[in-house]
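subagent[fold] <- orchestrator: predict structure for attached chain, return tokens only, no commentary.
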Amino acid sequence: MIRVVLPAHLRTLARVEGEVKLDVAGQVTQRSVLDALEASYPMLRGTIRDQVTRQRRAFVRFFACEQDISQESPDEPLPEAVASGAEPFLVIGAMAGG
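subagent[fold] -> orchestrator:
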């Protein structure tokens, strides 16, 4: 069971409170977690990743075990602590300003 923490606006869109728990078949990667998330919550399609290219949106970051993994390959296995459910996979809305 994978635990996913979403930013408040995406929790509202998905109509969930707190963490989302997902079953991910096979290897646990960014791609497999996001595929499972979008399959379970279709209203999130296109909010975290572009629907066509499947690339992460510019102001979204992914964290696992307190490390920013946003720039890593989406097919890179996530840490064992995330794969086992001990630690959550975090989707964070980045801030920009000037």
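orchestrator: received. Logging for downstream: The longest helix spans residues 30-40. The chain has one domain: 2-93.
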